[in-house]
Amino acid sequence: MSTRNAPAVSAPGLLFAVLGLAALLAPFMTLAANRIVAGEGVRAWSMAGPEATLPGLAAIAAGLVLGLPAAWPRLRLAGAALGLAGAVWLLVQGSAALLDGAGDYARVSPGAGFWCLLVILALLMADALSNLAPGPLARAGLLAAALLGLATVLGSGALADLSIFQEYASRKDAFRDAAWRHLWLAFGSLAVAAAVGFPLGILCHRRPALREALLPVLSFLQTIPSLAMFGIMIPLLGWVSDTVPGAQAIGIAGIGFAPAFLALVLYSLLPVGANTVAGLETAPPAALEAARGMGMTPRQRLFQVELPLGLPVILAGLRIVLVQNIGLAVIAALIGGGGFGTFVFQGLNQTATDLILLGALPTVALALVSAIAMDILVDLASPTPERHR
User: Fold this and answer.
1) Rounded distance between C-alpha atoms, residue 91 and residue 48, angstroms
2) What is the model's pTM?
3) For the domain bounded by 172-387, which CATH number is listed?
4) pLDDT digits (tens, 9 = 90+) for 259-283
5) What b/e sequence results for 232-266 when a residue is b if at least 16 CB atoms lie within 10 Å of its CB, and e otherwise?
6) Which residues belong to CATH 1.10.3720.10 in the chain?
């Protein structure tokens, strides 16, 4: 399509602009007497004086307007970033103003308007990036810039008055322990599943009879609900702990880290093994025939032809496993597995929304960053040279 016939206004950008302005009509923040009771919603222009709110509102409006031109995706990306900066500005100014004179136990939190606006601006940014179609190295740079900006905002203490950061301030050590436990559950189970699943996938590729017997079993494990799987692990590892000498000494017990870790490994075997088989089968017959003609042994064909060509599919399987395990590790807290799910279930028991968010938001962020990073690795492993820009 020629530039002359291209639409001047992006249809998604127009939709995001309308939805973004509508989101500003919803309560942008909530003010509550304490951490337990429900808060009262406050709209963006009512949180503080005009000198504090107008810059943020202007930045959000300008960002939504910049998201309209269809032909300038870089401008649309900059508009999304400007809108996010305006939303953060309103949070900073609004939290200080609302807490002034509200009492020692008062809490302020982002409201529905902020969360809706955050999603809308994130979608605008994603749409602009899809039009730009940056290569993996450019995406890695954008991801690093986004993480640096987030770290700068969080490290500055500008949002310290928000209720979720007050929950964090009273649980710093517990949060650090939960973060390490969550990472061990997600990445450790991925590593074990890869160590077991790769050889199984190679054997299944070489022996169709083994594939027909093993993959249905692994598929069946995927159909077991996560709570049921964790429940099955409790008596199983409890028996191992009681009967096997030295099992308790290395941390094997009916509840805690071990059953959660084993359940995640079992969930991970199918994606790793099946994608390994699928990746190895992507090698063109002509390439395999040429390798045989060159006198390559089966081992050489595997490591020099089949695995390099199938690496993108294999990495895609690891991406599925990683994002899946980051989410499932939250449920592991129900059996003492730790992780961010500890705060989620504590918050549910106490009806403390911000404590729930203290566990949920890092989980979402970790899953999102992991998915983007794995997508970058998949593209880097792709043999298509034009994508390496």
Assistant:
1) 10
2) 0.88
3) 1.10.3720.10
4) 889 999 999 999 999 999 999 888 8
5) ebbeebbebbeeeeebeeeebbbbbbbbbbbbbbb
6) 172-387
